[in-house]
Specification:
CATH class: Alpha Beta
Number of helices: 4
Largest sheet: 5 strands, mixed
Number of strands: 9
Distance between the termini: 41 Å
Structural class: alpha+beta
CATH architecture: 2-Layer Sandwich
Strand order of the largest sheet: 1-2-3-5-4
Strand content: 25-35%
Helix content: 25-40%
Radius of gyration: 18 Å
CATH superfamily: GHMP Kinase, N-terminal domain
Number of domains: 1
Shape: globular
Order of helices and strands: EEEEHEHEEHEEH
Length: 240
């Protein structure tokens, strides 16, 4: 039994709230226990200059932990972002680029903005899971505006963390557990069971091939549950 009463293979209580604000075509608040992330998806009818000659679209992401998201106030990243933030927003971007066929988007860009309102571990995985739902709503908006057709979305994507704490594997770690973990693993996968990212790091211990497989199996079960929550949030129709 974990300190919050969960079983080792149990997710934190997770809630995905669509249309959290009205300005962006995609707007989601995702709550994973004490971690709350606000995800928006916006459309710009243009692409970066290096993309112009391709005729294809683009998707990019930004991530930020807001000043009041942790007990000690975080400074805003006004002109320069730190290495961790850059790593995470690149992870979000490349994960969700694999959810769309950019050859069918036309010369348009989707911006995913993920802002952590409250951090209690697993902010990057919550951001990916919530941003996917915001992306689906933005794709629907773009289709209604005749920027693209109905065949842009290729797969659902979700993410979860797994960690080794006192030789036990735990799913969806909160901050207290993450701080104690000797191996930390962030996993991103599609609804087809294909891996997008496996980030397994020894923080205080090494791990074997067998242990990695165990972490991936546990993570897959968690991702399947998150994919189900995404489907419920979207009403079973990702782009309609």
């Amino acid at each position: 039994m974990r300190h919050d009463g969960r079983q080792p293979d149990e997710l934190r209580p997770t809630e995905i709230i669509r249309h959290f604000t009205s300005a962006a075509p995609g707007s989601v608040l995702i709550r994973c226990g004490g971690t709350h992330v606000f995800c928006t998806a916006s459309i710009e009818e243009d692409v970066p200059s290096w993309r112009e000659s391709s005729g294809f679209g683009w998707l990019t992401a930004e991530y930020e932990m807001l000043p009041g998201s942790t007990q000690q106030r975080r400074k805003r990243s006004r002109l320069r972002i730190d290495g961790r933030t850059q790593e995470i927003q690149r992870l979000i971007g490349r994960s969700l680029r694999l959810a769309v066929d950019m050859t069918r988007m036309g010369p348009n860009t989707i911006f995913l903005d993920c802002d952590v309102l409250q951090a209690d571990g697993g902010t990057r995985t919550a951001a990916i899971t919530g941003a996917y739902v915001a992306l689906c709503d933005a794709l629907r908006d773009g289709r209604h505006r005749q920027l693209w057709g109905d065949d842009v979305l290729t797969t659902a994507v979700a993410a979860v963390s797994v960690g080794q704490v006192r030789d036990t594997l735990l799913l969806d770690l909160d901050y207290e557990e993450d701080a104690e973990a000797t191996v930390d693993c962030n996993l991103v996968a599609t609804e087809h069971g294909e891996w997008i990212e496996v980030q397994a790091t020894g923080e205080g211990a090494t791990y074997t091939d067998e242990r990695l497989v165990e972490m991936m199996r546990l993570g897959r079960r968690g991702i399947e549950r998150l994919l189900a929550l995404q489907r419920v949030a979207l009403g079973g129709q990702p782009e309609t």
